[in-house]
Specification:
Structural class of chain B: alpha+beta
Number of helices of chain A: 4
Shape of chain B: globular
Strand order of the largest sheet of chain B: 5-8-6-7
CATH architecture of the largest domain in chain A: 6 Propeller
Distance between the termini of chain A: 14 Å
Largest sheet of chain A: 7 strands, mixed
CATH superfamily of the largest domain in chain A: TolB, C-terminal domain
CATH superfamily of the largest domain in chain B: OmpA-like domain
Oligomer: heterodimer
Largest interface: A-B, 46 and 30 residues
CATH topology of the largest domain in chain A: Neuraminidase
CATH topology of the largest domain in chain B: 60s Ribosomal Protein L30, Chain: A
Radius of gyration of chain B: 21 Å
Order of helices and strands of chain B: HEEEEEHEHEHE
Number of helices of chain B: 4
Strand content of chain A: 35-45%
Largest sheet of chain B: 4 strands, mixed
Helix content of chain A: 10-25%
CATH class of the largest domain in chain A: Mainly Beta
CATH architecture of the largest domain in chain B: 2-Layer Sandwich
Radius of gyration of chain A: 23 Å
CATH class of the largest domain in chain B: Alpha Beta
Structural class of chain A: mainly beta
Number of domains of chain A: 2
Number of domains of chain B: 2
Helix content of chain B: 40-55%
Strand content of chain B: 15-25%
Number of strands of chain A: 31
Chain lengths: 445, 158
Amino acid sequence: MKNILFVFLINLFLINKSFALIQVDITRGNLDPLPIAVSPLHVDIKSENYEGLKIKDLGLNISKIIENNFRSTGLFNPLKKEAFVQKPDIAHLKPRFEDWRLIKAQALVTGKLLIKNGKLKVEFRLWDLAAAKEITALAFTTTPSNWRRVAHIISDKIYERLTGEDGYFDTRIIYVAESGPKNQREKKLAIMDQDGANTKYLTLGNELVLTPRFNPTNQMVTYMSYFRNMPRVYLLDIETGTQEVVGNFPGMTFAPRFSPDGKKIVMSFAKDGNSDIYTMDLDTRVVERITDHSSIDTSPSFSPDGKYIAFNSDRSGLQQIYVMRSDGSGVKRITFGNGIYGTPVWSPRGDLIAFTKMRKGRFYIGVMRIDGKGERLLTENYYQEAPSWSPNGRVLVFYRETKAGSKGEGFSAKLWSIDITGYNERRLKTETDASDPSWSSLLSK
Amino acid sequence: MILNKNLKNILLVIFATLILSACSTAKKSGNIDGDVYTGKETVEYLASGVPDRIFFATNKSSLTTASRATLRKQANYLRKNKNLNVTIEGHADERGTREYNLALGERRANAARDYLMTYGISGKRIAVISYGKEKPVNPASTPLAWSQNRRSVTVKVN
């Protein structure tokens, strides 16, 4: 990616992890979110103008993005700025801890920025107010147009410090943007920042496109397109816009995903009424057949170590989830609950499989252990499917459709997310209707 | 006795209501037989008397007696029009996951294609394409609409 940000770690201030008092437990639903004050970043008066950026507001705007990220986790409660007790530049030097504690804040984020010679210099500090000390600080330099990513990277650093887990804010979501009446939907590939900003459309909507998924470095996308009315799996380079068909299959290919090393695409190929799972090596172009069964085998998803593939099959009569070794051996059914199961997706941590469950006309998103035990249904609705994991394995994004009236009116498709605790269900902002989301990995890792 | 008689009358009224309401629901879903659509509302014709589509039960791709009769008419028509090629489009309803429905649509289209081939139509003349749940003919979210959308449609290509 041309405009990829190069983060220069200039200076890692004193970090002292051992004496911090505040900590956020993310393993259960958090009913008592941590009150945190995010001070606007102080803008150095020596800052120069840069390509129409509103420099005066930049510090405030960065702090608002950080607050919005924190609020979206359900784990933090960003406090109102009217109550803030110190000016940003002074607080950044040394907060008056007792005054900040008075407004019930437990953590404080301060920072400052300077734009000079076409570079944006930012530093921030995270303060533990109870312990009255700085617990994380970081400074970095980037191009000023990356200021939103600066806010996301700061959010990730703070999230990591306070939860002990990787963050997921400096990420993007690729999805299918939908418009038009239900029986004549126009569908385009779209990509946006995790918080809904910077939406870009990657196809024009001339042909039907479905199920985009990132590769591990987030530069390539595999998806399905009906280009020239030939439903096939494609590969798209996001930077160059180059698209190519994956393989030379004499029939429909669909349900693609990358292997965790990014070298292969696993997908279904349908021929003569039978769908089986294949892989194609992107370097050697070697195609391998992984399943050979007269039933429908689809929705394959690799385990993060690449050793296993979870998939969807109706070989037992109805849709169920199976796991096999990545060479196709050792096929084992793992779902035996009431209802039928689809869209298995392996967690990036390797411990869970997310799925869609259908039962008595209702649709559920859930997670289970990789042996199928410990099923937990997180959300129930009229129609929802296609979960995709946040890179830290804590949040799922999926899409939900509403019931349509007799002429298709009232129909909508939207992206939603939910924590794997089952808490914090929320709708993601998209410019249009949206479906088939796929969450990237952290961009700055 | 009087009480009993009253009770009887009440029961009769209740029965009558039940039967009437049963009739009205039967009318509404009268074009569905074991969740396969049997009506003609959405059907178009390749030629006079030759319907273009057949319908399927939920999650199924097996052909009903009515579907086989329709396909025999299509085979007959294709035999008489030797230069005509067709594409069979397979579809699913909206009540399933997208990827599985793509596979299901392909299976349905091939069920129709296989049947035409057993009646002597060359496979070379019949292409198939699955649209999964992407192209509903009826956009409503009702059992009737879903039954109309679980279909394979034979389309002339030349």
